[in-house]
TrEMBL record:
<dbReference type="InterPro" id="IPR050616">
    <property type="entry name" value="CPA3_Na-H_Antiporter_A"/>
</dbReference>
<dbReference type="InterPro" id="IPR001750">
    <property type="entry name" value="ND/Mrp_TM"/>
</dbReference>
<keyword id="KW-0812">Transmembrane</keyword>
<feature type="domain" description="NADH:quinone oxidoreductase/Mrp antiporter transmembrane">
    <location>
        <begin position="130"/>
        <end position="425"/>
    </location>
</feature>
<feature type="transmembrane region" description="Helical">
    <location>
        <begin position="6"/>
        <end position="24"/>
    </location>
</feature>
<dbReference type="Pfam" id="PF00361">
    <property type="entry name" value="Proton_antipo_M"/>
</dbReference>
<dbReference type="GO" id="GO:0012505">
    <property type="term" value="C:endomembrane system"/>
</dbReference>
<keyword id="KW-1133">Transmembrane helix</keyword>
<dbReference type="GO" id="GO:0035725">
    <property type="term" value="P:sodium ion transmembrane transport"/>
</dbReference>
<feature type="transmembrane region" description="Helical">
    <location>
        <begin position="283"/>
        <end position="301"/>
    </location>
</feature>
<dbReference type="GO" id="GO:0016020">
    <property type="term" value="C:membrane"/>
</dbReference>
<feature type="transmembrane region" description="Helical">
    <location>
        <begin position="248"/>
        <end position="271"/>
    </location>
</feature>
<feature type="transmembrane region" description="Helical">
    <location>
        <begin position="113"/>
        <end position="140"/>
    </location>
</feature>
<protein>
    <submittedName>
        <fullName>NADH dehydrogenase i l subunit</fullName>
    </submittedName>
</protein>
<feature type="transmembrane region" description="Helical">
    <location>
        <begin position="166"/>
        <end position="189"/>
    </location>
</feature>
<feature type="transmembrane region" description="Helical">
    <location>
        <begin position="210"/>
        <end position="228"/>
    </location>
</feature>
<feature type="transmembrane region" description="Helical">
    <location>
        <begin position="81"/>
        <end position="101"/>
    </location>
</feature>
Length: 488
């Protein structure tokens, strides 16, 4: 029975999607209840995997053998469990938030919206529990396809253009770079299975250094959901989607799938010895460090609320890759735990942007003066998330940033520490003024917010995620224990 749990965790939301389609617009309450129930069941199945994992049991399931060394199979390990736990939990809150958002704005095609939402989480969990590159590739591509209708949801000129960039960038890089990388890996090794320490034997590394260098670049940009510059433009373009979709993209599934897959390649396809033997560690540090600083600087220039959050996400994703690429215990800990710490912080911020839009139809930060007086739950939650993003002690972001900083010193790379400090400073510069404007500035016009009130269907989920930035900052032990198993 326990071997079936990963498959059940993947399939439950896909089954929910079928039921949502069958219900359609006839009974919206039942349709949304199905989405919530599927989310709760998915999270329950993931939680049921934690005790046997912590006991050291091997949990895996082979579905089919395609070719020797190429299988459709699943396996539960610490890295996959970390990703699946965060994504499945946040999907429940995002579903409640979506109900308030979509109904209040009377959005069209809500059945399609909730269907694709459910399918996207099936794809994300499939990525999390994939036992090899072949299985991961299938679910990675599925995630791109089922989230396209969400990005292009509004079906206006902006929506279709944003959707076009999204699908061209992500499918294009996967077809051109990723597929080639997987084929070359199979030719060199005869397998696509993930292994601790990597799959390239020393003699393969010695004879194919240049090929392995090119191969790593293909993997990094083939798994383009990680948004490493310069192939990051799809991510801010996707902000034309409804805000719950933006939250899904930036916190729950899509971008986290990107950094998860790159982390999987670094840890379980290449490994520390291979990365250092082919001399690619410095290039990874350069690409990710450049992305962190440039993403932060561009965020500083954006007045559109979601655009500022989007470029902040571009920067923060590279925290995860740079931490894993350190291959030090503290670096890996900081990078991997940032998957969860950033998720709770950033989903709160996107929820806030959507809550403000639902109540006011305001999208620009420059127009938020005084909004905190009439939307105190929303804007106070944003302030908590800001403290986490900056890395203030007792908040989630501090745990990941502290470990990353110590990891940089552990491997003797103070320049990486400088990047983290500069990025945190820029986080403060572009996020704190939003809270200041909301609570301490007078509205642009008198009585501007006279008829504005909070939508509690939106406000309660974002308050919960904001509180989790404190809970995880004070009690991170559970997540850290899972990550320690990754490093054993």
């Amino acid at each position: 029975m326990i071997e079936l749990l990963p498959l059940l965790a993947i399939l439950v939301s896909a089954i929910g999607a079928v039921i949502i389609v069958l219900i359609g617009e006839r009974n919206p309450n039942l349709r949304e209840a199905t989405s919530v129930i599927a989310g709760v069941l998915k999270f329950s199945f993931v939680c049921m995997l934690i005790p046997p994992f912590l006991r050291g049991e091997t949990i895996g399931l082979k579905i089919a053998t395609i070719l020797p060394g190429i299988e459709l199979s699943f396996r539960v390990d610490g890295l996959g469990l970390l990703f699946a736990f965060g994504a499945s939990f946040l999907w429940i809150l995002t579903t409640f938030y979506s109900i308030g958002y979509m109904r209040t704005l009377r959005e069209h095609a809500q059945t399609r919206y909730f269907t694709c939402f459910a399918l996207s989480l099936s794809s994300a969990i499939g990525i999390a529990f994939a036992a090899n590159l072949f299985t991961m590739f299938i679910f990675y591509e599925a995630l791109t396809i089922v989230t396209y209708p969400l990005v292009a949801h509004h079906e206006d000129r902006e929506g279709l253009e944003g959707g076009r960039q999204y699908i061209v960038y992500l499918l294009g890089t996967a077809k051109i770079f990723l597929f080639a990388a997987i084929v070359i890996t199979y030719i060199l090794t005869g397998t696509l299975d993930f292994r601790k320490g990597g799959i390239f034997a020393p003699e393969i590394v010695e004879e194919n250094k240049l090929i392995l260098q090119i191969l790593l670049i293909l993997f990094i940009y083939g798994f383009n959901k990680s948004a490493v510059m310069p192939l990051h433009s799809w991510l801010p373009a996707a902000m034309v989607a409804p805000t719950p979709v933006s939250a899904l993209l930036h916190a729950v599934a899509v971008v986290k799938a990107g950094v998860f897959t790159v982390s999987r390649v670094l840890l379980n396809i290449y490994g520390e010895a291979t990365i250092k033997a082919i001399g690619m560690q410095d290039l990874i540090f350069f690409l990710t460090g450049f992305t962190i600083i440039m993403g932060s600087l561009i965020a500083l220039t954006r007045d559109d609320f979601k655009a500022r959050l989007a470029f902040s996400t571009v920067a923060n994703l590279s925290y995860i890759i740079i931490g894993v690429a350190m291959f030090s215990p503290l670096g890996i800990m900081g990078g991997l735990i940032h998957i969860s710490m950033h998720a709770f912080s950033k989903i709160t911020m996107f929820f806030v942007a959507g809550s403000v839009y639902v109540s006011t139809h305001v999208k620009r930060i420059s127009e938020l003066d005084g909004i905190g007086k009439v939307m105190p739950i929303t804007m106070f939650s944003f302030f908590l998330a800001t403290l986490s993003m900056i890395g203030i002690p007792l908040f989630a972001g501090f745990i990941s940033k502290y470990n990353l900083a110590m990891g940089a010193l552990q491997i003797g790379r103070p320049e990486l520490l400088g990047i983290f400090i500069a990025s945190s400073f820029l986080n403060a510069v572009y996020f704190l003024p939003i809270s200041y404007k909301a609570f301490f500035r007078k509205p642009l016009q008198e009585n501007r917010w006279q008829n504005v009130k909070e939508n509690y269907f939106c406000a309660i989920p974002l308050l919960i995620t904001a509180l989790f930035t404190i809970i995880l900052g004070v009690y991170p032990d559970f997540l850290m224990e899972i990550i320690r198993r990754v490093m054993q």
